[in-house]
Amino acid sequence: MIDIYTKPKLYDAIHQNYSWDKDLITLLAKDIGGPVLELAAGTGRLTSLFLDLGLEYTGIDLSSEFLSVANKKYGNHATFIQGDMCQFELKKQFKFIFIGFNSFLHNLTDDDARQCLQSIQNHLMNDGTFLVSIFKPDPSFLYREKGKLYPATSLFDFEGKQCRIMETNDFNDETHVNHLTWRLERDGNLETEEYQFKMRMFYPHVMDILLSDSGLRIKEKMGDYDGSPMDEESGMQIYVCEKT
Ligand SMILES: C[S@@+](CC[C@H](N)C(=O)[O-])C[C@H]1O[C@@H](n2cnc3c(N)ncnc32)[C@H](O)[C@@H]1O
What we know:
The protein is α/β, with parallel strands linked by helices. 26% of the residues lie in helices and 34% in strands. The strands form 2 sheets. Strands 1, 7, 8, 9, 10, 11 and 12 form a 7-stranded mixed sheet that branches. The chain is globular, with a radius of gyration of 18 Å. The N and C termini lie far apart (43 Å). The mean pLDDT is 97.
């Protein structure tokens, strides 16, 4: 099994056209200002949004491979730090802290999530804003047939071939951890390498408790990046918070 977060070229190829979160993040950043801290910043997919606005940007990520790509792209203008979002100490506070694209789900236990939110609270300015965006647990996805391969992406170009990701998942309904395995299909041929990652599912009522216990008051809940409010039909949970 290969950790997907050691393969930045593949990750970037998969997400080369992924931009549906950019408008909302840009709108908020314009309004809130900097300095900005992104947790689980990856290969810096969103970094240029802040640099283009002239905002000071710091990104934290666990993966040295991803950070090396981020540094090559933006290292002269932004700061990237290798660290764990559950426990970081930067001796600095930020006006805008965010963790997007489901990365909060890499906190696999309540303890991890609480530590992560506490570290965020410690680094948020008194008049600062925190945003977290994750998808809502979806039973039709979590309880799919075990071992069966489902398409996880549409077609994308990688190393000159038309590719897509096929995935299986195994959801543990006691721990609420979903174990995902990805395989690359290249020009229609399924490769043998298996890439894996795990995501803990958080229900909206659990997010309410975790955020409020960490001293973060929810100002706005959205159900999508188009800004629509969160309801039972929404696929996403997006929380905009301030310090209590
Ligand atoms: C879905 S990717 C998102 C990357 C980037 N934010 C984006 O929007 O493209 C998740 C990221 O979380 C990082 N990650 C996973 N666990 C982490 C942890 N405990 N602390 C910091 N980063 C972590 C991975 O290395 C990966 O870059």
